[in-house]
Amino acid sequence: MTIYKICGRALWRAAQTDGQFRGTPDDIRDGFIHFSTGAQLAETAAKHFAKQGDLILLAVDAALGPSLRWEPSRGGDLFPHLYGVLPLAAVRWARALPDEVGGRRPLPELEP
Description:
It is a single chain. The chain has a single domain (2-88), classed as Protein of unknown function DUF952 (ADP-ribosylation fold). Helix content is 24%, strand content 33%. The protein is built from 3 helices and 8 strands. It has helices at 9-18, 25-30, 38-48, and strands at residues 2-8, 20-21, 33-34, 55-61, 68-72, 78-82, 86-87, 91-97. The chain is globular. It starts with a strand and ends in a 15-residue tail after the last strand.
């Protein structure tokens, strides 16, 4: 299964230099890295990244062991939360996320 993370390009570059992704400031504040499934991604992008640019979308292999927990969030939906750092080896791909057009952000084709 693939899960997804949106972050700023600068954070992703820093993670590549560091060899691991520690999360965004919001993730660090909350004590875990927030992810979304493919079905949850459009709403996550609209709710938490509206009008932001220079974003990267990470596709991550969800086989992260017991540090990955599925916990209720928006509307009771279960969201993947990683309690630890994300090893870069788990990142399947990283792509630039297009800016919003007319208030909507186009998303690339996603893996299940």
